[in-house]
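# step 3/5: fold
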Amino acid sequence: MSRPSLLDACHGEKSKDEIQRLKLDETVSTNQWLRDHDGPHDMVVWTDFQSAGRGCGSNSWESERGKNLLFSMRHHPHDLPARRQFRISMAVALALRDVLTRWLQTVITVKWPNDIYWQDRKMAGILIENRLKGALIDSSIIGIGLNINQREFLSDAPNPVSMCQIAGHEFDREALLADIIDEMERRLNAVDDLSEEYQLALYRRTGFHHYSDKDGDFEAEIAGVKPDGRIILRDTDGHERIYAFKEVRNEKL
């Protein structure tokens, strides 16, 4: 059975189970495009270039035109409580980890909460924006920037890496995107508990490493991740410290 084209127009005739997919030459950001074109159906939009692509917070995302994957998926979870929204983050991160491990045949890890790493270098970032309806998540816009065929990075980002730099050759972006979408859909629609698998996939999940918080520097190991996404670090004195995203840093990253 042939795979549906990733160049399908967003309002074309679709079967019930087929996700809508749209390719744009350029846009401000794929997350913004989906916010501006809200709808009841799951959808993927991808582009060759984003004029205002961003990571978490105020961070920007460097991407040479036509070299990488810049895309967003609109997903409608089924009866997922807002308090369990970190499940979406785990599902997406594990989907990317699995696909990239297959394509590169090397160890890929997830830096808490959802950056994708090869060794000590960042290959992909994920930005998730959830919209609530009462106590449930009505929809999620999942934005992903994945470095694929870019050979040189010019920004001041400390540790970017691309698949091409790792493997020494370029990759088919469209085929890779199709594989990622399939795996994301499978992970997002599964009902199994992802917590243990996610924690086993974490970058620097064993050993003590350098961290810093508002009170200063310390050494700690990862003791776990709570269901709401907060990380548990155990310092060298055996004390557990619990942090939300942006409350703790690993200075080398």
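# step 4/5: annotate
The longest helix spans residues 86-104.
# step 5/5: archive (pending)
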